Records
---
Amino acid sequence: MNLKQIAKDTAKTLQSYLTYQALMTVLAQLGETNPPLAHWLQNFSAGKIQDGEAYIEELFLVKSDLALRIMTVREHIAEEVTDFLPEMVRTGIQEANMKQRRQHLERITQLDLSSPSPKTEQQKISDPDLDNLSD
């Protein structure tokens, strides 16, 4: 397990996600101030946002002002969330793991009383001790 590579991959994924969030913010702003430009950006961005850096690079070639705006918003979002993000990720993973373990334990220990097995039914019918209890 290469922790340094995992950290790099996680950072790249987070960076792309923050680029996506910045795009959503800019689209919302443009939707109010310049709907045709918002529509253009929406169409341009369709299917390209998976890799945030490649997306920004491509947008720079077409509309550098929008690329700069998205980068500025992305940087602001990153500054706002990175302080509490590590603790939130740790806590979120711990809580999700606990929930998954609890659900798994419930599944493996759950008794299905609605349809008893044929063997259990046979035992009830042929158990002499149970027959004597009714006397």
Note: The first helix runs from residue 3 to 33.
---
Amino acid sequence: MDEVRVPLVSVHWRRQAFVHWPYPPAVLQRLLPPPLEVDVFEGQGWVSLTPFVMASTRVLGVPLPGSTFPETNLRTYVRRKGGPSGVWFFSLDVTHPAMPAARLLGIPYSLGRLTVQCQGRTCHYAGRRGCRGPGYELVVRTDDRIDAPHGLDSWLTNRFHVYAASAGLLWRIPASHEPWPLFRGTLRRLEQSLLAAAGLPEPAASPLVHTSPGVGPVRLGFPRPG
């Protein structure tokens, strides 16, 4: 993890859910730009749907108006020879109108309608890109805490670099934050069309589910050549 001394963005991530599916690496590789390669765990690639709430969002230290809002990411796990491993976003749906400005760096933000509602140990997430775009509805129950995440649990959640491509260049954005307080989760309901919209086939296996109350502050650094 790089130490981000002067953050471009500082934010707290709250009410996080992670729904992870295994995929054959070759299926994911065709969706990545060179020189990125699929990062694998025991020979398997992974894709994750991660809805959450952005809170106390600051840009260059200045609070973003309306700084608390929902966001939903669809991501996979990548590496670059000679560089750190990280994540690649297939899509990021968000309600805040300022966030799509990050598309200039190749981070594929889209405006949508999203909601997050939690009651006790159960959270209901829903979203729709634009008016008629792909969407999802997800209900997840939080189960037992994972006292010392390791192995696949840690590999899927402890990622401190984002890769993006823009104008023929690969960019890397470092992130730093405390370790996730991580819990097992049970999927109570899921309907989604985000995977197909990203060019992915339906998963062949049931998902692995995590939840977290969140971390923060998360410090996102300035983009660097990848």
Note: Helices lie at 25-29, 151-157, 194-197.
---
Amino acid sequence: MKVQTRAADLLAEQASACGAPSYVTFQVTDVCNYSCSHCYQEHVGHNELSSEEVFDILEQLAKAGVLFLTFMGGEFFMRRDADEILQTAHDLGFAIKVLTTGHHITEKRADFLATIRPLQIDISIYGSKPAIHEHVTRQEGSWKRSTDAIKRMVARKIPVVLKTPVMQSNVADLKAIAEMADSLGARFTFDPKITAIEDGDLKTTRLRMSQEDMANFYGDTMATFIDQGFSNAYEEDLRPLGETPCRAGKDVCAINPQGEVWPCNSLPMPVGDLRKQSFASIWSASDGLTEVRGLKWATIQECNECPVRSYCTRCHAMAQIEHGEMRGPSLEACRHTVAVRDSLRDRGVIPATETQLPPTWNRVAADGQHDRLPSGGRRSSALKVL
């Protein structure tokens, strides 16, 4: 974890020196042929960028010196020009990653993907069996479409990562998913934080792991990972007050299907409009990006006095969307922080004296439904303000 943090800091410094982010996520469409139960996107699907506008933006990103470029949707391959977009990005020299369900990756498209040599293709997988996976996608046959796509790409030596959001419905299946990935010749990654929808609707948060399952997740499935990242957190401050909790707006940013620039693809806070402004001018002079870059542990309410901050992986987007304030804590991050710390303590990795709690703890719900507590409350729906 410390090595990764230092690498991220180096990329941020390079981005600052070059005047561009090192990593951009380009969501080229809101449209998706699935209706996954956990999805945080609104799927508006209107007034999306034309092919010519997309190509112009790619030229601007290349000129600015952006290195890593991730394409996503909705479902990226719902765009008829998806392959042309990828070919253009390849010709411009980007290191390309694609987030997709795999539904549209036929033999022909797999052949094409092999020619552009992507850094990796992330395939959304929600279960090792069709019933578990399709409970989430609500699309019959989707598990086979995705696993067939994985096999096609692995056969062509395209790096594939199975990407799994962890929910109550699939938490018991994670080891089987890991075994499936290994058997297919792919890697896997688990994301334990289920977020609210971009417009502030909290219905997706009802899918979060229970406290018991979260404890098992960090104490078993993720034990090795958190041991590597947090085993020395009690000895030194891994989250100094002068540092930012998040890379959003520092060396990463996102572009949405309408050409708005966001600090990251999870934070729907427009900081510029590529239909009216150049990417270079937005990155260098946006007041919104300046605001996000200025967020440090020292300036975030309650986080700046939290005794377990060293175990935290706070997200600006979760704080903003669920609680309406980027300068305040994310209660779901608080819940995960304590679960991580408790796992380390209970397994003897850190001292038994590590028992302190965040100042927010009386507002944290054990099941992640923080808004349902008497002290909770829903955020304002007026989030997207340019």
Note: Strands lie at 23-27, 68-72, 95-100, 120-124, 160-165, 187-191, 252-255, 260-262, 272-273.
---
Amino acid sequence: MTINIETMAARIAARFAEKLKRVESTCGELTYEVARDDLVEVATTLRDDEEFRFEQLMDVCGVDYLTYGVGEWTTYSATDSGFSRGVEREPVILDEADTFDPRRFAVVYHLLSLANNVRVRLRVFPGDENPPFLPSVVDIWNSANWFEREAFDLFGILFEGHPDLRRILTDYGFIGHPFRKDFPLIGNVEVTYDADKGRVVYQPVSIEPRTAVPRVIRDDNRYAEALKDGSSDG
């Protein structure tokens, strides 16, 4: 059975009232914000209720909104000092702040109802605690296991109740979370083989920060109207 997304939206609005806030979507999918404390209850209902039947969790992804809306690459002039955040910012290993902006980090859950052929996205903001945390949904959708580990590894978001929350992509001794916007592009340490010690060792990064200048939009007389074919002046 296939239902219109607005039919599903009406069902969700009727059931969850104040617990889900619909978010405008540029791709025509249903997207909602849910409070951290309501996540488990809402997710369980979306999975089990016959009106919804979102049996599959397709993905869980972290988001860092630290520089959201900042047009870092919008410029009409070049620079000789570098334009990349990897050059301009000081290296960050661990963020020692007690709190974050409450809407800096988010976790997005992508749900699929095979019965109704409808997708829904849930976005949750962990709040301002450092480290950020959310309840795990592994007991609701088992596929969340590795997805939550990935969000923990790359963004440093903790999931309470996860059965095996450890890194999944970075190395065992990795420090920091590489998908955070303030993590240095060149990293903090590098791995090399030490022939004298006969083993792999960690050492400070030896790569020099590279000045990354974006493509600059400049006025060019080749595109001047007066020089185009068919111009009245030509």
Note: The chain has four helices and nine strands.
